[in-house]
Every structure is written in structure tokens, then in C-alpha cells.
């Protein structure tokens, strides 16, 4: 076996796309002026992770409290990213009613993978939210 084999293996593994796909790294959630962003919601996801976190995006500042999402965002989010040391709490019904779930710092490229109930998932199901950072 060639002594270059481990190096070639490491390069090949580095070229494999990660599970985050096209989602930004949670630590990179900052506005242009350098201030912190608590989370970002995206209206597109895909069975292929590299196509997730696309389309229109909604940026949330720390302390964002939206019991009623804007009409174009109600039941629209299908991918999201939460900054480190932040937590996004979402509700399935307007006015912070219905089912709830907390997303901690990290990327969630396919909300279809997170169960809302027996027959539903969180994709296109977020109607209210609260984002806080420590």
C-alpha cells in the first residue's frame, strides 16, 4: 500500500458533502453590520441536503417574539438554522397555540424529519415562534 493512501482517503472524505448541505453554519449567523442573528428560516427544502436552506429567508433577532407570523411566512418554513447558544421555540398554531417544539443551536435542513404528531411533521407547520439567546 502506498504511503499516500491515507492522504488520498482524507481528501476524498473532505470532498463528501456534509449533512448541513447548503445551510449556513450556525456560527455564521450574523448580519452585515456584525450583530448577532438568533435564527434563520427558509421556505425551501429538498430530499437532497445540498439543496436545502434555499429560497426566501426570514432572519430573527435575539428576543424575536412572533405569536403571529407575517402572512407570507405562516406555515411556510421548511428549513431552519439556529445560532449557537440560542433556542428557537415554535408553535403549530397562531397565537402560540397547538403543538410546540424547541430547536437548539444547529442546522435543521429538512423539517420533514421532525415529527409534529402521528401523521404530520414540522415542514410548513410553524405558525408562531420565539427566539432567545443567552
From TrEMBL:
<comment type="function">
    <text>Functions in exocytosis in pancreatic acinar cells regulating the fusion of zymogen granules with each other. May have a pore-forming activity on membranes and regulate exocytosis in other exocrine tissues.</text>
</comment>
<dbReference type="GO" id="GO:0006887">
    <property type="term" value="P:exocytosis"/>
</dbReference>
<dbReference type="GO" id="GO:0042589">
    <property type="term" value="C:zymogen granule membrane"/>
</dbReference>
<keyword id="KW-0472">Membrane</keyword>
<protein>
    <recommendedName>
        <fullName>Syncollin</fullName>
    </recommendedName>
</protein>
<keyword id="KW-0968">Cytoplasmic vesicle</keyword>
<dbReference type="InterPro" id="IPR028137">
    <property type="entry name" value="Syncollin"/>
</dbReference>
<feature type="signal peptide">
    <location>
        <begin position="1"/>
        <end position="21"/>
    </location>
</feature>
<keyword id="KW-0268">Exocytosis</keyword>
<keyword id="KW-1015">Disulfide bond</keyword>
<dbReference type="Pfam" id="PF15138">
    <property type="entry name" value="Syncollin"/>
</dbReference>
<keyword id="KW-0732">Signal</keyword>
Amino acid at each position: 500500500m502506498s504511503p499516500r493512501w491515507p492522504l488520498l482517503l482524507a481528501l476524498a472524505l473532505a470532498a463528501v458533502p456534509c449533512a448541513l448541505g447548503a445551510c449556513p453554519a450556525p456560527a455564521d449567523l450574523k448580519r452585515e453590520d456584525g450583530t448577532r442573528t438568533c435564527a434563520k428560516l427558509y421556505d425551501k427544502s429538498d430530499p437532497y441536503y445540498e439543496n436545502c436552506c434555499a429560497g426566501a429567508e426570514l432572519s430573527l433577532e435575539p428576543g424575536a417574539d412572533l405569536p403571529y407570523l407575517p402572512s407570507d411566512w405562516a406555515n411556510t418554513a421548511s428549513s431552519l438554522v439556529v445560532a449557537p447558544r440560542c433556542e428557537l421555540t415554535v408553535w403549530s398554531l397562531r397565537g402560540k397555540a397547538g403543538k410546540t417544539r424547541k430547536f437548539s443551536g444547529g442546522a435543521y435542513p429538512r423539517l420533514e424529519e421532525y415529527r409534529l404528531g402521528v401523521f404530520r411533521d414540522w415542514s410548513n407547520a410553524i405558525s408562531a415562534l420565539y427566539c432567545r439567546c443567552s
